[in-house]
Amino acid sequence: MKNILIFGDSLTAGYGLPAPQAYPSLIQERLREEGYTDYKVLNGGLSGDTTAGGTHRIDRWLNEPIDIFILALGANDGLRGIPARETSQNLQEIINKVKHKYPEVKIILSGMEIPDIVPGRYAAEFRKLFRELALQNNIHFIPFLLEGVVGNRHLNLPDGVHPNAEGQKLLFQHTWSKLKEVLERS
Questions:
Q1: For the chain, which domains are there?
Q2: Would you name the residues annotated as active-site residues?
Q3: Strand stretches in the chain, DSSP E
Q4: Long-range contacts, 50-53 (Cβ 8 Å, 24+)
Q5: 0.90 surpassed by pTM
Q6: How far, in Å, CA of 106 to CA of 70, rounded?
Q7: Distance (Å, whole) CA 21 – CA 60
């Protein structure tokens, strides 16, 4: 059995939804449909988690072998205005820990963005940090996990922040298209 760990926050955990509607479950379903029956998806989503929390939390997950690692943290950093440099350093530390334990692991980084309505340079710096990390580490990259979901009230829960079941399907599509590339190259 090969493990795919999706390590993230409430977006990955499927906040406010039954587990089968969260995108990691949808990925597991698609893997089965496409004949990748030797892959198991581990949902490492924790609502409210930041990249700083992730640097500590990742250690527990490294007890299980990981073949593909999908890193989807950072949204809460953006919401809290944590300096982009700090978020970047935390994500790099998580990547380093995973690579150190599993040198052959394939890594996909899910990019996050915060709305441009946030004043100053922060939104641009925040968006850029994900692309730069992907390039520096030569890893696969999903430009924006919430593409098409943010600001669309039909795709979000009443809180306007967390994707509903339909929104989770888009997170699934963005992630699956990159994961499929990785699987086809393996």
A1: 2-185 (3.40.50.1110)
A2: 10, 159, 162
A3: 2-8, 39-45, 68-72, 106-110, 140-142
A4: 50/9, 50/76, 50/77, 50/80, 50/82, 50/90, 51/77, 51/82, 51/86, 51/87, 51/90, 51/91, 51/94, 52/77, 52/82, 52/86, 52/90
A5: yes
A6: 8
A7: 25
Q: Tell me what the mean pLDDT of segment 97-107 comes to.
A: 98
Cα(150)–Cα(128) distance, rounded to whole angstroms? Answer: 18
Q: Confidence class of residue 93 from pLDDT cuts 50, 70 and 90?
A: very high
* Exposed/middle/buried for residue 116 (C-beta within 10 Å: 0-12, 13-18, 19+): exposed
Which DSSP helix (H) or strand (E) runs through 81? none
Closest to 117 in 3D by CA, of 79, 149, 90? 79
Which of 171, 169, 162 has the alpha carbon at shortest distance from 15? 162
Distance (Å, rounded) from C-alpha 52 to C-alpha 22?
A: 23
In three-state secondary structure terms, 34 is coil
CA distance 22 to 6: 11
